[in-house]
């Protein structure tokens, strides 16, 4: 069997396996990704492959722990940028997902800023299965109505509900039902968001294809955008997770900037 060298990192507990295939192409089957992603095995929220540099940027390919490929992972992208920055002795890295170019900067000790691009609000861009007001969604789940949902795409689809207590909702039960609702043809990430004040929001996140997660970078971005659009917070806000926070800033052109911590780099190996 072939032994594969990889890297384990996390952002606020949102954890990743990173495989560098700039020099050697390494492929894993969906079944192998699911096997490795299990918490009884190595365990991760996402596995990310770094591809050969192209046009001064590094393409990345991302899979959830359920084996499904996705287009965006904010915390994972920050971890990859830090890894590449250390490897190439630079503080600025450009990453390319299948739908966005991401500019990353190492801005301090284990601190990375990522420019996420602009949010998309159209029904066809999120996407939704029908044209409706994406800023005021009502869903009926388990005979309960969830109102005021805000849908946005920040590289992947999200729905955010603003609630009094984000931890009183059983996301293990309702999360997968919202994720797989008929309204979302590509599924969706689900966030319960609690406004603390105009500079702070606490969140509880169900991540599409990964389940309950300690943190989610794109959910932080989507929540900040939704709250700012609803005039609940300022254009710069801290999104608080269980193990810390991400700072999200929205500039005048609606570009989103996410800054937060990454872990040290751990080298691991496993059998293919």
Q: How many distinct folded domains?
A: 2
| Beta fraction | 35-45%
Total helices: the number is 4
Q: Structural class from helices and strands?
A: alpha+beta
For the record, give the distance between the C-alpha atoms at the N and C termini, rounded to a whole number: 6 Å
Mean pLDDT across every amino acid position: 96
Overall 3D form: globular
Written as H for each helix and E for each strand, in order along the chain, the element string is EEHEEEHEEEEEEHEEEHEEEE
The CATH C-level class name of the largest domain: Alpha Beta
Over the alpha carbons, how many angstroms does the gyration radius reach?
Answer: 18 Å
Please, could you describe this protein's structure?
The chain is of the alpha+beta class. The protein has 2 domains: 3-117 and 261-271, Diaminopimelate Epimerase, Chain A, domain 1, CATH 3.10.310; 137-254, Diaminopimelate Epimerase, Chain A, domain 1, CATH 3.10.310. It is 17% helix and 42% strand. It has helices at 30-37, 74-88, 171-179, 217-229, and strands at 3-11, 14-20, 46-50, 58-64, 69-70, 92-96, 101-108, 111-117, 137-141, 144-153, 157-162, 189-197, 200-207, 211-212, 236-241, 244-250, 256-261, 266-271. It has an 18-stranded mixed β-sheet that branches. The longest helix is centred in the first third of the chain and has 15 residues, at 74-88. It is globular and about 50 Å long. The model has no long low-confidence stretch (mean pLDDT 96).
Helices and strands, with pairings:
Layout: E1 3-11, E2 14-20, H1 30-37, E3 46-50, E4 58-64, E5 69-70, H2 74-88, E6 92-96, E7 101-108, E8 111-117, E9 137-141, E10 144-153, E11 157-162, H3 171-179, E12 189-197, E13 200-207, E14 211-212, H4 217-229, E15 236-241, E16 244-250, E17 256-261, E18 266-271
Parallel strand pairs: 2-3, 4-6, 11-12, 13-15
Antiparallel strand pairs: 1-2, 1-18, 3-4, 4-5, 6-7, 7-8, 8-17, 9-10, 10-11, 12-13, 13-14, 15-16, 16-17
